[in-house]
């Protein structure tokens, strides 16, 4: 079964105009930056985000301990299904080696309980 680690920092999910230059305020040991035609989306330390930036604050991250081969299927689905059944919303971020689940801090304890009940080693 996949081991899951709870990252310690509080995160913010930010939305900027897609033409915005890369902000200098981005920091943290966990950051994710995605630029599309519709937006520049940034996940970084909550306390790094200026007050005038559109942001949803108070997120925590769970790291699936990889790496996982690209050919492996169903890893994220096996985690998302019990969370969805418990009506816990999350944001999935995939990297080359692994996946991260972002959850609102207010539901973190409940999400951890749900995942442990589903057989995951969360710590």
Individual helix count? 2
Number of E-state strands: 8
Helix content: 10-25%
Radius of gyration: 15 Å
Major β-sheet profile: 8 strands, mixed
CATH class call: Alpha Beta
Broad structural category: alpha+beta
Mean pLDDT: 93
CATH homologous superfamily label: VC0802-like
N-C termini distance: 13 Å
Q: How many domains in all?
A: 1
Q: What can you see in these coordinates?
A:
- With 123 residues, this protein is of the alpha+beta class.
- It has a single domain (3-118), classed as VC0802-like (2-Layer Sandwich), CATH 3.30.2130.10.
- The chain is 17% helix and 34% strand.
- It is built from two helices and eight strands.
- Strands 1, 2, 3, 4, 5, 6, 7 and 8 form an eight-stranded mixed β-sheet that branches.
- A hairpin with a 4-residue loop joins strand 3 and strand 4.
- It starts with a strand and ends with a strand.
- The mean pLDDT is 93.
Key phrases:
123 residues; alpha+beta; VC0802-like; eight-stranded mixed β-sheet; 2 helices; 8 strands
Summarize the topology.
Layout: E1 3-6, E2 11-16, E3 32-35, E4 40-45, E5 55-64, H1 75-85, E6 91-94, E7 99-104, H2 108-117, E8 121-122
Parallel strand pairs: 1-8
Antiparallel strand pairs: 1-5, 2-4, 2-5, 3-4, 5-7, 6-7
Summarize the structure.
This protein is α+β, with helices and mostly antiparallel strands and 123 residues long.
């Amino acid at each position: 079964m996949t081991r899951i680690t709870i990252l310690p920092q509080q995160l913010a999910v930010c939305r900027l105009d897609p033409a915005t230059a890369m902000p200098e305020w981005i920091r943290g040991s966990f950051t994710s930056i995605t630029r599309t035609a519709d937006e520049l989306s940034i996940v970084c330390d909550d306390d790094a985000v200026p007050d005038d930036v559109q942001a949803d604050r108070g997120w925590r991250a769970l790291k699936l301990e990889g790496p996982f081969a690209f050919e492996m299927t169903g890893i994220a689905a096996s985690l998302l299904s019990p969370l969805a059944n418990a009506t816990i919303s999350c944001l999935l971020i995939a990297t080359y080696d692994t996946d991260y689940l972002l959850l609102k801090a207010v539901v973190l304890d409940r999400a951890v309980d749900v995942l442990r009940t589903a057989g995951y080693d969360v710590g």
